[in-house]
Write a structure and sequence with these properties.
It contains eleven helices and 16 strands. It is an alpha+beta fold. It folds into two domains: about 1-85; about 90-355, Deoxyribonuclease I, Chain A.
C-alpha cells in the first residue's frame, strides 16, 4: 500500500511538470525557457503516467484522478512525438506531376565507419548523400551544417538530378533542386552555422517559397565533451559542473531560438501563400520556437508520419529536432519518412508535398 501512495506522489510530480510545461509554452511564461530540457523528460514522464494510471485502475481507483487529468491535458502532445498521421489522414498521391519530394538533412558529420571483413572502413558521406538521393529521389534537398568543399558539392550535382543550387560561401546551408531556383538569400544568426537560406522555385506553374533553417544549438552533447567522456577519471564535481552548465546553456538558448523563429515566421508570411520551412530547429515539440513556427504552418510529421519521431541519434533517440513545415491551406503532405542513415548524428527526413492550388 505504501508503494501505491508513493506512486501517487510520483504521479503528482510528473503531472505538475508536464502540465506546467504545457501551460508555460502556451502562454509564453518563463518556465518555457527550460522546455528543451523538460521536453526530453516529457515522453518518459507521459509513459510513466500511463503505467501509473493502469496500476491505480486495478489496485486503488481513488488515486486515478491525478494521472487521468494529466493524460487528458497532455495527450495533445503525443502526436508530436508518436505519429499515426499516415494511417489517419489517408490520401492518394496525385499522379499528375503535382507532387514533389523534399529531404531535409543536417549532414554535420562528414564521414562514417562501416565494418568490412572485420575492419572499420571510413566512408566519406558525400557518397552516402548521393546514395540517399538515388534511393529516395528527392526533387529538393535542404542541407544544414554543409561545409563540404566546392568539388564535393559539384560531385553531388554531377551524379544526381539536383543540378540547381542555392548556397553562400559565408554559410553552411544549402538548397539543391531539380527545379530552377531564384531570389536566393542568406541570413546568419551570429555565425556560419546558424541562420537561414531562402529561395523560390516554380513547380507546375505554381511558385513555392523555400526556407532552409538551422536554429541556435543547445550544445547538449558537445558541451564539456572531454570531461564527460572520461567517465573513469571524472569526479562527482566534474559531473555536477557538466550538468549545471548544460542546463544553463539550455536556459540561455531557448529564448534565442524563439527570437529566430519569430524572424522565420515573419519571413514566411512575406514570401507568398505556398511556403516550406524545414531544417534543424535544435528544439523539441514542447518549445517556444516550435509553437511559433507551427502556428501558421503544418507539421508534416504529425499529419503524415508513422511511428516514433526521433531524428537525433544520441540521448537515447528520444529527441525530434528536425522538421518539415508547410502552408496549411495551399500545400498538403501525404507521406513522411525518417531515413535511417549513418551519415550524421541526425537522420534525414523526407516528405511528399502536394500542390493543392486552393488559393492564389
Amino acid at each position: 500500500m505504501r508503494a501505491l501512495y508513493l506512486s501517487f506522489f510520483v504521479s503528482l510530480i510528473i503531472a505538475i511538470v508536464t502540465v506546467s510545461v504545457h501551460v508555460s509554452i502556451k502562454y509564453k511564461l518563463s518556465l518555457a525557457q527550460l522546455s528543451p530540457f523538460l521536453g526530453i523528460v516529457f515522453p518518459i514522464a507521459f509513459f510513466l503516467n500511463c503505467i501509473l494510471l493502469l496500476c491505480f485502475l486495478f489496485y486503488d481507483r481513488r488515486l486515478l484522478v491525478i494521472p487521468l487529468i494529466t493524460l487528458i491535458v497532455c495527450v495533445m502532445h503525443v502526436p508530436e512525438h508518436l505519429s499515426f498521421g499516415r494511417w489517419i489522414n489517408v490520401q492518394q498521391a496525385d499522379k499528375e506531376n503535382t507532387n514533389f519530394k523534399l529531404i531535409s538533412f543536417n549532414a554535420g558529420k562528414y564521414f562514417t565507419y562501416k565494418k568490412n571483413d572485420g575492419k572499420k572502413v571510413r566512408i566519406e558521406n558525400v557518397q552516402i548523400l548521393v546514395d540517399i538521393i538515388h534511393k529516395h529521389q528527392p526533387d529538393i534537398l535542404f542541407l544544414q551544417e554543409d561545409t563540404r568543399r566546392p568539388r564535393e558539392t559539384q560531385y553531388v550535382i554531377k551524379y544526381t538530378n539536383l543540378t540547381n543550387i542555392c548556397k553562400f560561401q559565408t554559410g553552411s546551408l544549402t538548397i539543391l533542386s531539380r527545379y530552377t531556383l531564384h531570389d536566393c538569400d542568406f541570413e546568419s544568426f551570429g555565425n556560419t552555422v546558424n541562420g537561414y537560406i531562402r529561395a523560390k522555385t516554380t513547380i507546375s506553374g505554381i511558385e513555392i517559397g523555400l526556407i532552409n533553417v538551422h536554429l541556435t544549438s543547445n550544445n547538449i552533447v558537445l558541451t564539456n565533451k572531454k570531461s564527460f567522456s572520461m567517465k573513469a577519471t571524472s569526479s562527482l564535481k566534474d559531473y555536477i559542473t557538466y550538468f549545471t552548465k548544460t542546463i544553463k546553456d539550455i536556459h540561455n538558448s531557448a529564448p534565442i531560438r524563439a527570437k529566430e523563429a519569430e524572424q522565420i515566421k515573419k519571413l514566411s508570411e512575406k514570401m507568398g501563400s505556398r511556403i516550406v520551412v524545414a531544417g534543424d530547429f535544435n528544439d523539441l515539440p514542447l518549445s517556444w520556437s516550435y509553437k511559433i513556427l507551427t502556428t501558421p504552418l503544418l507539421d508534416t510529421f504529425i499529419h503524415s508520419g508513422a511511428g516514433w519521431g526521433a531524428t537525433f541519434k544520441h540521448l537515447g533517440k528520444l529527441l525530434r529536432l528536425d522538421y518539415i513545415l508547410i502552408s496549411h491551406d495551399t500545400l498538403s503532405a501525404d507521406y513522411f519518412e525518417i531515413i535511417k542513415s549513418g551519415a550524421s548524428d541526425h537522420y534525414p527526413i523526407l516528405t511528399r508535398i502536394g500542390l493543392n492550388g486552393s488559393t492564389n
